[in-house]
Amino acid sequence: MTIQRIAAFSDAGAGGNPAGIVIADHFPDEAEMRRIAMEVGYSETAFAMPDGAADRWRVRYFSPESEVPFCGHATIALGAALAAHAGEGRFALRLNSAEITVEAEATASGYRAALQSPPTRSAAARLDLVDQTLALFGYGTDQLDPALPPAEIHAGADHLVLALKHRRDLAAMTYELDAGRALMRDHGLVTIMLVHVRSDTEFDARNAFASGGVLEDPATGAAAAAFAGYLRDLKWRHGNRIEIIQGEDMGAKSRIEAEFTDEPGSSIRVSGSTRKMV
Q1: Residues sharing a CB contact under 8 Å with residue 141, sequence separation 6 or more, in sequence order
Q2: How far is Cα 219 from Cα 217, in angstroms, rounded to an integer?
Q3: Exposed / middle / buried, residue 38 (Cβ in 10 Å: 0-12, 13-18, 19+)
Q4: Which residue in 7, 102, 170, 263 has the fewest CB atoms around it within 10 Å?
Q5: Same domain, yes or no, for 139 and 177?
């Protein structure tokens, strides 16, 4: 069995979030997929097998500690792997509880891929969850940006988003992994997304991923899709396109683009460049 290692959402041929990719005729059993994900050690490993047609694939995602319902960066990496395996184009992906697509095309430095996310939704964050999360990171309510109220956001997976007034507070993010894991699992969160507004269409972000046993994700496509859906629900001045810079504070700068219509709840197109890991 061949395990590919591909970084998604790379920036100028560097950075990005690495994912393990396994393309096989049949899935290994679940225990073996968990073992492989732990051995690879990245935040997610995607497993893909044919699903009845040349352009249809059944996909599952595993972190080192748990199965994940949807992973954006691993889907972008999978798109590059499928294009190399079967040729450029669009592929239908059947996940555990959603159906999405990913497409990829070759570039001078590798592949560029774009996914269409599951439907989105957002709601004001529960006050007790916000209080617990602020305590986890050691932030105060005065550090929050009132322009983007705390929200629970979804696009195939659940996330909490908190916006910070100052970029320095984002750079200073720190928390205890075990405490973060307990909080996220108690509230059914895949990540906690912290953002800072650069402009109406540009955002800095950091994503805590303790639920998967990883302190921080350098690029999170699923959260980017959910965040774009939240901005749409908020009627933010987004122009139907945003860019997220993530991973910069951990030395793995990543660039995520999201495009979307004004239709509430509709799919988000999330795209980025990839690079093959040695």
Answers
A1: 134
A2: 6
A3: middle
A4: 263
A5: yes
Residue 58 backbone class (left: φ over 0; alpha: ψ -120 to 50; beta: rest): beta
Q: Are the CB atoms for 158 and 190 separated by under 8 Å?
A: yes
Q: Which of 64, 71, 2 is nearest to 34 (CA)?
A: 64
- The last residue of one of the domains, among 116, 140, 169, is 116
Residue 30 belongs to some domain of the structure: yes
CATH number of the domain to which 145 belongs? 3.10.310.10
Q: Are residues 215 and 86 in the same domain?
A: no
pLDDT, tens digit (0-9, with 9 covering 90-100), for 170-188:
999 999 999 999 999 999 9
Strands (DSSP E) found in the chain: 4-10, 17-23, 45-50, 56-62, 67-68, 89-94, 99-107, 110-116, 121-124, 151-154, 158-163, 191-197, 202-209, 214-217, 241-246, 254-259, 269-276
Question: Number of folded domains in the chain?
Answer: 2
**Residue 75: what are its φ and ψ, rounded to 5°?**
-70, -40
Q: What are phi and psi of 225, to 5 degrees?
A: -65, -45
Q: Comparing C-alpha atoms, which of 124, 116, 89 is closest to residue 105?
A: 89
Average pLDDT value for residue range 82-96: 96
Give the pLDDT band of residue 148 (cuts 50, 70, 90). very high
Residue in this structure with the two tokens 């352009």, named with its chain if needed: 55
Is residue 231 predicted with pLDDT exceeding 80? yes
Tell me which residue has tokens 């599952």: 60
Asked if residue 98 is part of any domain, the answer here is yes
200-230: per-residue pLDDT in tens? 999 999 999 999 888 999 999 999 999 999 9
